[in-house]
Design goal:
Elements lengths: L1 H19 L2 E7 H18 L2 E7 L1 H9 L6 E4 L1 H9 L9 E6 L1 E6 L10 H10 L3 E4 L6 H12 L3 H6 L1 E4 L5 H5 L5 E5 L9 E6 L8 E7 L6 H11 L2 H9 L3 E2 L2
Parallel strand pairs: 1-2, 1-3, 6-7, 6-8
Antiparallel strand pairs: 3-10, 4-10, 4-11, 5-8, 5-9
Length: 252
């Protein structure tokens, strides 16, 4: 009898544990993807939850949440998240700033590094490059939108667009690694992970564009407590070292 009771207790505990475990759907921009992938395994191990990661541009994340695609946590820029708040798509007060990242320049590993130390030097590097890759602004990627406006501001829009290799999401650095383009411009955290590519450095301070990324709980989530726990893990002390290794800084 005692054995049967003990077995029953174990089974009950097991069923309870499974009932508490949740599958968390996380939507993230590409800039934060590598950080998520580095931190999720420990979170899953400690919490028992499973995290399903979907990557898109900031605009793509907004579109998915707006359309009602299953999601528990969304990571994007505050501007995008503010729009979703206005639409009533996220839990008010759940926003947590995670990291800041700037835009950098990349070349193929082993290739000469152009001078980008000043605005004028960066402008000349754009003109000298045979091909320039960046995110297609139409895809909703924040860096692509910024770069397209920047080349207009620098007065080289016609020259750069004529030789541009636009990437519709993903890593611009992939185009550098496979030889599609000579010079790549993207957020630093999306250059660092790509093999065969060298980060030349960040854009000059006067034209740098630092993007903040934040996480929120999606209003339609059926796993709000688990979602909040995941956000806490992504913004906790353990995340700081991972962020820096991926080319980002913890949000202040």
């Amino acid at each position: 009898m005692k054995v049967r009771i003990a077995v029953a207790a174990i089974l009950a505990a097991s069923c309870f544990g499974n009932a508490q475990a949740a599958e968390i759907n996380l939507l993230t921009t590409g800039a934060f993807k590598q950080v998520v992938l580095a931190l999720v395994p420990d979170f899953e191990k400690q919490s028992g939850h499973k995290v399903v990661v979907t990557n898109d541009t900031a605009g793509g994340v907004k579109a998915r949440v707006t359309k009602g695609e299953p999601a528990d946590v969304a990571i994007a820029t505050p501007a995008i998240l503010n729009e979703l708040t206005g639409e009533g798509k996220i839990v008010k007060g759940s926003e947590v700033k995670l990291a800041n990242v700037g835009v950098g320049v990349a070349v193929k590993e082993g290739a000469p590094k152009p001078d980008i130390s000043t605005v004028e030097a960066f402008k000349q590097a754009l003109l000298n490059a045979k091909t320039v890759a960046y995110i297609d602004p139409k895809s909703g990627g924040s860096s692509g939108i910024y770069i397209d406006k920047l080349i207009e501001k620098l007065g080289v829009a016609d020259q750069v667009r004529a030789k541009a290799k636009l990437k519709n999401g993903g890593y611009v650095a992939d185009y550098i690694a496979d030889g599609t383009a000579e010079l790549g411009i993207h957020q630093i955290s999306e250059i660092v992970p790509v093999k065969g590519v060298t980060l030349v450095g960040p854009l000059p301070k006067d034209i740098q564009n630092v993007t903040t990324y934040a996480a929120v709980v999606v209003a339609s989530s059926a796993n709000k407590e688990a979602a909040a726990a995941l956000i806490k893990a992504l913004s906790g002390p353990a995340a700081a070292q991972v962020l820096r290794s991926k080319g980002m800084d913890p949000a202040s």
